[in-house]
Amino acid sequence: MPTFTARDGTALAYREGGEGEPLVVLPGGPMRAGAYLGDLGGPDAHRRLIVPDLRGTGESAVPSDPVTYRCDRLVDDVEALRVHLGLDRMDLLAHSAGGSLAVLYAARFPERVGRLALITAGPRAPARRTVRPAARTPS
User: Fold this and answer.
1) pTM, full prediction
2) How far apart are the first and last CA of the chain?
3) Which of helix, strand or coil describes residue 49?
4) pLDDT tens track for 40-97
5) Domain span at residue 29?
6) CA atoms of 26 and 11, how far apart (whole Å)
7) Is residue 73 part of a domain?
8) Which residues form the AB hydrolase-1 domain (predicted)?
9) Can you give the CATH number for the domain in which 97 is found?
10) Residues in CB range of 81: below 8 A, 6 or more apart
C-alpha cells in the first residue's frame, strides 16, 4: 500500500485502483479505514480511485498527538495527499462522516477542488455556533 507523510510526520497510507482521472474518496465511520468502500460499485472502470486510510486507521500510523484526530486537522492530511499525488486540483467523493472533512477541505482550499460529491453525509464540522435568544425588552 503506498504511503505519504503528513505535515506532522505521521505516515499515512492509501490505496489506488482503476484507471482514468483521479477521484479521491474520503471514508466515513468516523475513524474507519477506507477498505469498507471496496470499489464503490464500479467507478474504478472510468476513474482512478484513491482511498486514504485516515490517521490511526487501517495501514496508517497512529499520530503522536491525539489532537490531530480532529476533523479540522485532518484537512492538512487531505492537502498533503493532493501534494503527494502531484495534482493541481482534485475531485472529492466523501461518504458519511467523511463529508465533514470534505466540506472543511473545500472551504479551506476551494481552488484545489474540481468536483465535490457527498454521499449520505451529515457535514456538521464547519461553522458550529451557539445561537443565543434575543434579549427581551420591557413592554
Assistant:
1) 0.84
2) 69
3) strand
4) 667 777 899 999 999 998 899 999 999 998 888 999 999 999 999 999 999 999 988 8
5) 3-119
6) 17
7) yes
8) 22-132
9) 3.40.50.1820
10) 4, 12, 14, 24, 50, 52
